[in-house]
């Protein structure tokens, strides 16, 4: 059966004259500061952006349909209201990764999702008569507000979250607070390697504590490789490498030192290998 395309998610944006409920809640709780840079990711028609600017806030709006100029700076606070409910799971994961990458170290993002949905799937928009998609969303972040219509989550980078469920001493389960998290999704995160082989060497790390990548559930394996694609895009723009090596070490005989699964993304540059080829087939020196 052919999967229906999600072409009209932008039609769910509505015109308002007052702040949205999530924006008003954050404002009332002093979670929006007037001296920091704020991004409204998926701002729709930009109502919250306009109203917050009138109150003196430094707010930038981004929406792939209505305000398509993608931001190129980092932000102290990012808000994302009712966006994830109208996206497919792959699109949701992409939004999470993009927001994580745009967030300054120590910054916070706030996601608002609908809690008044009675069914998931496509339905005809009552005005535009086009098929629009709606789904229920649960996030593994701290919930700071919940009523019958809305839930608000607070997000910080993985190494700054209170990971009270991680009782082990694994450094990948409890990464140092001074590490730079490049991007993050619900089940994985990417950080710059502490002992880089080349400039821009990044590790994609599943949050589940598993030493053997092949023991991860398939959905989490897929999420890791989806993140590899996103990381490659980020590194390509920032470092402009001439190539990449991408791979993993599984078990000690294959060179695994940290017994927590990870995927290496190693940018390669012309001239970084002298005298011999440097590809995957040459990982065993005697067989090169």
TrEMBL record:
Domain HIT: 168-275
PROSITE patterns per record: HIT_2
GO molecular function: catalytic activity
Matches recorded under InterPro entries: AP-4-A_phosphorylase, HIT-like, HIT-like_sf, SAM-dependent_MTases_sf
PANTHER family linked: AP-4-A PHOSPHORYLASE, HIT FAMILY HYDROLASE
Protein name: HIT family protein
